[in-house]
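**Tokenised fold:**
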Amino acid sequence: MKRKFICFALVLFYISVLPAFSSKEKPSAKDLPERYRKWLEQEVVYIITPKEREVFLQLEGTRERDLFIEAFWKHRDPDSITLENEFKEEHYRRISYANKRLGRGTPTAGWRTEMGRIHIILGAPNFIERYENETEVYPTVVWFYQGMSKYGLPDAFNVVFFKEYGSGDYELYSPLNDGPQKLLIHYLGDSRDYLSAFNQLKNIRPQLAHTSLTLLPGESWHTMTPSMASEILMSNIDVKPQKAVKDDYAEKLLKYKDIIEVEYSANYIDNNNLVSVLQDKSGISFVHYLIEPYKLSINLVEDKYYTTLEISGKISDLKGKIIYQFNKSIPIQFGEEELNKIKTKPFSLQDIFPLVEGNYKFNLLLKNRVSKEFTSFERDLIIPSFQSSAEMTRLILAPHIKNVSSSTSNKPFKVGDVQIYPSPGNEFSVRDKLFIFFQIPRISEEVRENGRLQFIFYKGDQEFRREEREIKSYPQKGQFLEEFSLEHFPPDFYRVEVNVFSNENKIILIEQAYFSISLSELIPRPFIYSELAPSSGDSLTDYILGGQYFNQGVYEKAEYFLEKAHRKKPDSLKFAEGYGRILITKEKFEEAKKILLPFLENPQKDYQFLKLLGQTSQKLSQYEEAIDYFKKYLGHYGTNLEVLNAIGYCYASSGNKEKALEAWEKSLEINPNQENIKKLVASLKGEK
């Protein structure tokens, strides 16, 4: 059986901000166990990024730190398919060399010397010039490097070390801060007279004299002053290891370390994403989102290409209370012909769900079950209420739209009979069209009839183009789709601003978005995976909205939507349970029992409703029935303290103190820290 992984890599831009520390004292490396302190402050001190260091110091325990270290090296591995990590092996080889060869004759460990630091960061030089036994020049060593342009460094440059006043460790030489005068043993001129020192050194060592003013071979200059390009080079050498790695994974590992399984922990990948909140004709708000992983790893077994993606979404309010959660498992399978068509494209997973009014945090976690990789994003969401004033949604920019025949089906980024294909990076080519879509759901009739829109395009800080439209020219109220040709937009970065003017010619709403025009004539557009979603009139939508209101504690609206869902599909146990819970909460016990009883004969492999039936019977003082339902529930799901204690209450209420005592004592065996149950047990024993 042939089996291997295939990865589609995408180039994306992703910006992430590490959460700020609280006001309490920041964790310190001195608090770490010895082996982790050594790893942080010796082994990786020159290559770890500030964000990675901050995250590592926040981790607790061996497991978390070991997972971080594994992820640290994994994100520097140049070839993740092989078992070897060439970067890690080379890094420790450099440390070993520095300790053995670059600390000789000094009390300083090799890795701590300036030569050791540069060797660990840049590796061995291509060529070395030594001026170590000179009568006129202090000991000086020049390391020449070539082929470093891929790290943002010059293709060829020198790094110079010297012993100040001829003793101590070799120090890093700076043309600006030290100058050729620091290299001369018998220089008696002004300490800032670079020209005099250069001429003196030129008569002794011409090549070294040139290097003393510029570290860049071949650089020309018109004044005898040190090159600023050399100072920039030296600064860039220090950040070279940070430029070589995207450290967003560290923040994600910290955030999800308690959620994701161990095998995923070291495998964070980046993504591009987009989230939009749009209303349908009924006024219900739907959250449309897409996520494009930096790469999609799939498995090949014989001639089948497949993977399984798992999505976990969470909506929480500003106090952290969970309002809505969803989980989906999505099997992805390609044939070879289809794979060849899409393997050069990004993979875009798109979805949609309804959400009630409020301010929220949206967290999405995407896991690839085959490769054990994960990615995620977080967004703030504002869902306006039906009573709020007119607001404008964020602009959606797209290179392509499509008119679809069915206006009733519900799909991500579909509004009415228009399917929008947004670009999450807002990148376009000159051959593309630019479609701009937005909504003003509660636009007034006065503004609709007499207002206007103004589209202003800015190239840099300069206005590039301006167009106006009458609002009444758009056929659907509160819904705006505009098309612009990009044929005369030269490649550059742009900002589009949309102003809404009232009938009094005042700007009442403004939104803007940034986009870029690429030099490429063709930009690969993604392969999109999405599924049909329930529309606003669907019973599942009613059920989801009712559950969200229930979790918010808005019980009147929760009952309205959950009753609608149950009425539309009375044979659904899930909908009956949802409606039953709100009825119990509102103490409508007879109604709750009535809708749940029919499922005793056909429970559909879900027995949670037995707990609800037990609760309704208990509240109706039907204790024998309640005990029977509770025991059947325990028979399917095992021990549950809440249910076990409820059985005790039912026995006690019906006068069977021995059975009540038996149930509560069993509950205390499982969890002794139940003070109320302890008091009940003591009370029963005291009455005997």
